[in-house]
UniProtKB/TrEMBL annotation:
Pfam family, any one: Citrate_synt
Descriptive protein name: citrate synthase (unknown stereospecificity)
Family: Belongs to the citrate synthase family.
Source organism per UniProt: Noviherbaspirillum saxi
InterPro entries (alphabetical): Citrate_synth-like_lrg_a-sub, Citrate_synth-like_sm_a-sub, Citrate_synthase, Citrate_synthase_sf
Keyword Protease found: no
CDD domains in the record: CCL_ACL-C
Residue intervals passing through the bilayer: none
NCBIfam families: PRK06224.1-1
GO biological process: carbohydrate metabolic process; tricarboxylic acid cycle
Gene Ontology cellular-component annotations: cytosol
Record GO terms (molecular function): citrate synthase activity; lyase activity
Pathway(s): Carbohydrate metabolism; tricarboxylic acid cycle; isocitrate from oxaloacetate: step 1/2
Keywords per UniProt: Lyase, Transferase
């Protein structure tokens, strides 16, 4: 092979993958231009999440708000399908990585996607043409959303919690951050306006849940809706790991979703 052809192939190989995230050479590791040794011990994990997924550095206050959202969604008990799957997977012989992968794979549109869907809804309200009041804008966008997706509004109501304590705390942190000028508070206003509109429609309160509250946080911090799901998965992975590890310590073999002496309902002929 000629030298020119070899040089061309090497150039093509180097250009096959491009990234502005990390620069690695012998003895050098830089994340977005910052040496890794300057980050280790000096920034939080939430700061690193921001740095890896964005093109800017967070302020300490922004990183703290992101961290609060990540902490809020780590776990919701074995009744959550993803958590249950991680525990069942361990009893079927899978190692931790297999149990985590099995659980994360079910975090899709129905179980895991509400935060992304809610932030998409909030963005539609935020982008609505000027001239309408907040209440009229929310009404119009909710009508559009229900016509497209059905009556379930992501981010509101909870099958276990009449009021979601996680949402209350996150909204309080957003309010405090807005007073300090860290965020604008626009998404908090939108979230509360949607909550009020839903209460009028249902003639009963339908409070914001954890998915709605994290959507508020991620919207205030400028994350795209798809990232809201990714960040939720990152957060919930901690709970998945913890439950898989706990089940590994407890032992058990081929545990199904219910004890074997509790039968299912047969509906066939």
């Amino acid at each position: 092979m000629s030298l020119d052809k070899t040089t061309g192939l090497l150039k093509k190989a180097r250009e096959w993958w491009t990234t502005k995230i990390i620069d690695i050479r012998p003895g050098i590791i830089r994340i977005k231009g910052t040496p890794i040794q300057d980050l280790i011990g000096n920034v939080s994990y939430a700061h690193m999440v921001w740095l890896m997924t964005r093109d800017d550095q967070p302020t300490p206050e922004q990183a703290a708000l992101l961290e609060a959202a990540l902490v809020s969604a780590v776990d919701h008990g074995p009744q959550a399908p993803s958590i249950a799957i991680s525990r069942m997977a361990v009893t079927c012989g899978l190692p931790l990585n297999g149990a985590m992968a099995s659980a994360i794979n079910v975090l899709d549109d129905v179980h895991g996607g509400a935060g992304e869907q809610c932030l998409e809804l909030f963005n539609r309200i935020a982008r609505h043409p000027a001239g309408l009041s907040m209440d009229d804008t929310v009404t119009a966008v909710l009508d559009e959303y229900v016509a497209e997706h059905g009556k379930i509004i992501p981010g509101y109501g909870h099958r276990f919690h009449p009021v979601d304590p996680r949402a209350i705390r996150l909204l309080a942190l957003v309010d405090a951050a807005a007073k300090q000028g860290v965020v604008r508070g626009r998404y908090a206003d939108i979230g509360r306006a949607v909550e009020a509109a839903l209460a009028q429609r249902a003639s009963s309160k339908l409070p914001m849940n954890i998915d709605g509250a994290t959507a508020v946080v991620y919207g205030e911090l400028g994350f795209e809706p798809a990232m809201a799901r990714g960040l939720f998965i990152l957060s919930r992975s901690v709970g998945i790991l913890a439950h898989a590890w706990e089940q590994k310590q407890q032992g058990g073999r081929i545990k199904g979703p219910m004890p074997p002496d509790i039968d299912y309902t047969y509906t066939g002929a």
